[in-house]
Amino acid sequence: MSGKTSASRKKSKKKRVRRRTGRRAARRPTRSAGGWRRKLLQRVGVVFAVLIAGTLLYGFYLDAGIRNAFVGQPWERPARVFAQPVELYAGRNLQAQELQQYLHQLGYDRVAQPSQPGEFATTGMVVRLITRSWGAGSRAAAPVAVEVRFADGTIKELRDGRGAPLPVIQLEPQLVGSIIPASGQDRVVIGADQVPGLLREALVAVEDRRFFQHHGLDPRGIARAAWVNLRAGNISQGGSTITQQLIKSHFLDNRRTWRRKYAEALMAVALDARMPKERILLAYINEIYLGQDGRRAIHGFDLASRFYFGRSLPQLEIQDIALLVGLVRGPSFYDPRRHPQRALQRRNDVLGILAAGGVISAEAATRAAGQPLGVTRQGQRNNGNYPAFLSVVTGQLLREYDRDDLTSTGLSIYTTLNVMLQNDIEQIIRRALDGLDVPDMPSSADVQAAAVVVVPETGDLAAIVGGRNPGFDGFNRAVTMRRPIGSLIKPFVFLAALSTGQLELDTLLSNERLSVPLDTGDTWEPDNYSQQYGGEVPAYRALAESLNLPTVRVGLQVGVKNVITILKQLGLQRDIPGYPALFLGAAELAPLEVAQLFSSLSTRGFVTPVRAVKEVVDADGVPLSRYPLTVSRGVNEVAAYQVIANLQLAVSHGTGRGLQKRLHEYLEVAGKTGTTNDYRDSWFAGFSGDVAGVVWLGTDDNSPTGLTGARGALPVWADIMARAATVPLDTRAPSGIQKYAVYYDSAGPAASCAHGVLIPLRADSHRPEGLRCDGNQ
Amino acid sequence: MTRNGDRADGTTVMLPRGAAAHLTAEAERYQAAGDYIAAAASLERAMRIEPGNPWLSLAMARLRLVEGAPGQAEMLARRALSRAAGDRILTNRCWELVAQARQAGGDKAGALEAARMADQHQ
């Protein structure tokens, strides 16, 4: 365009101008009117693409997290821990009332006439029920109609639905907990069949009406919440779906950042795509945070049900479920114990929503709204949680399985827990400690307790209590606490001496003071508890009356090593320090360890290890691990029998005398008191013909309680045994024993076999002047 | 539960009754069918119902022997013996089982000894 003449330039200018106007003009409107928009669109498009790509990538990353957290093992089917199934049979010691309570705890419905599994009816001394099916594969048990007739505190008759006599029937075992890997918490995870329909419907109605329709996010819900918040001028409504809430709860992140919300939204969509709605709802029901119990967080509706109402989820009424559903929005804000008015209002609001949504009838809602809150005082009733026992189970299993293994595909763990006994023992201990009248003690509220009950024949750990508030997940004193056992060691010192033949039960022992030189160069000068000494006593009296001086002499003669060997042969799995102070019980053991020792003693030295788990079974009923009872020979039977007989003497004539007025006279038991220095620990351990029990009383900070074994632990042990023991000690002697009748005090021969006491000696310990008594007495 | 017995006649230890008897019979059936796990489960149930009954320890000993655990079989039979208290039949059966268990475990001398003990209590 350049280089033209002025005339032509004029012309071309015109032309140029025209041309410019033509072409460039055409271009200019694009650039000025539309060009920037396109670039903007391009830019926006790029940003969007980046966002989407980023979202997708982030989504994949989160999805992996979802898969691991939810679709993977823990949420599919956690390992479930079951108690020992209750056996019903004619002749069993059981009261109608006890069976009813247990059925209630199992979640059976009380009806007029049972017509389906899980129902029972009571008329007077007859309980009729239909058991639920349980187990899987070849172990599956079908429902059975049962009629139980009671009389005199026992089951008199057991019949099936057709009236034919039933020799024995097992009720399905109670679920006592689950094993969750990540947190390791003991929570009660329930299956779909244990969720009341009302709970499912209520959650959907109150928290997420379009739960079954949306895909993880609910745009309408979000929009409505935003609108409400806008109008209210603050954020009062969430728009969160159940899926979102589940994500939020599970990842336990309290940060309420936009990035968090964004991630949650993506994860909710991913989760919804991956898991069926019912499973999401079930996970929610098992996961959602519903309260605080000290430092234990209450997650899941079943645990919350037990925590607030002392009952399992299937046992709740309409208003109870409404209360729990109402708690979702603010477990602290609506805490029924701290803010009862608010909780009541919220509960009734929920009832209103349910009525409006047609989930329940208006009449039902009104009726329910008129009911009181009904929550229990904390820790008042057993809430179906047995953390002490569960910790033993987990401990036993973790020796063989990884935590991850334990939670794969629906394992069932069958244990030895005797739920009815456990419940009763927890109550006994609570009552005993609440009623404790302790002299010169700073505060009897500080006294703690632990108890263990074992079935020696099978090694079953039947019951275990870790503290005076057993439902609280905390320090398990029965297992984790080790205390000096004091005089509980004495039977084993004598056992060692008897089994090596160095001692006979009627050997005269010096009761004089003595000085024991120690390796450290110091001298140890033990004394009797009564501080009385002098003369001689027969060995059986030294043990029955727990005299220190003769015991130390016996110990010195047999040697510390031999005593420790005996303990290990009887099931002690650790090494303990080998000082002479051991003879008076300086060794520190846990109550569970003591239970093993006395259990082994009670079977006359046939050692069956205490176990909590019997079997681990997979979801199809195939056993993965079995823990059958095993027996090994721990000590000489004859010596064991002698010590048992001596501990019976302790009850009839010695430090265990206090038992006599507390136990039925036919229940023959053997037992030993244990008191440590300055009355810091109060122990009692012993057994009947069918169970062995250990009780410990003391304080956590090791301050004195002022209680001897006889004043503190003995009465509690007596109450426990009165409830747990049904078979008296079998006093028939094994071969190799010869009994002599002597007068207890003098050890001289009695006038006849019906006089004095019977002392068992080894058959080859001839006593020509003694009065031999044959026959099994 | 105290019982005076004349040594010459021997006392007898009561066989399992009621539910325990039923479960023992059930265990025997399982054992005959080769289902040792179920047999053991039934016997354990019986033991919980009648703890200390030596007939149950003996039954469990028999099961262990059949399962190929002669060591446990002998232990359980010895446990039964410690409660046999002069019951001749029970004592005899226990020693018989000990003999079999020792034989299965390769302890021929011990098996002979146990067989002799069994004979003493015919």
- N-to-C SSE string of chain B, H for helix and E for strand: HHHHHH
What is the average of the pLDDT values of chain B?
A: 89
Structure classification of chain A: alpha+beta
By CATH's scheme, which homologous superfamily of chain B applies? Answer: Tetratricopeptide repeat domain
CATH architecture of chain B: Alpha Horseshoe
Provide a descriptive summary of the structure in words.
The complex is a heterodimer of chains A (777) and B (122). Chain A is of the alpha+beta class. In chain A, 39% of the residues lie in helices and 17% in strands. Chain A is built from 22 helices and 30 strands. In chain A, strands 9-1-12-22-23 form a 5-stranded mixed beta sheet, with helices on one face. A 5-stranded mixed beta sheet of chain A has the order 3-4-5-6-7, with helices on one face. In chain A, a hairpin with a 2-residue loop joins strand 6 and strand 7. Chain B is mostly helical. Chain B has one domain (16-120): Alpha Horseshoe (Serine Threonine Protein Phosphatase 5, Tetratricopeptide repeat). In chain B, 70% of the residues lie in helices and 0% in strands. Chain B contains 6 helices and no strands. Chain B has helices at residues 18-32, 36-49, 54-67, 70-81, 88-104, 108-120. In chain B, helix 3 runs antiparallel to helix 4 and helix 5 (88-104) packs antiparallel against helix 6 (108-120). Chain B is globular. The two termini of chain B are 26 Å apart. The chains are: A alpha+beta (777), B mainly alpha (122).
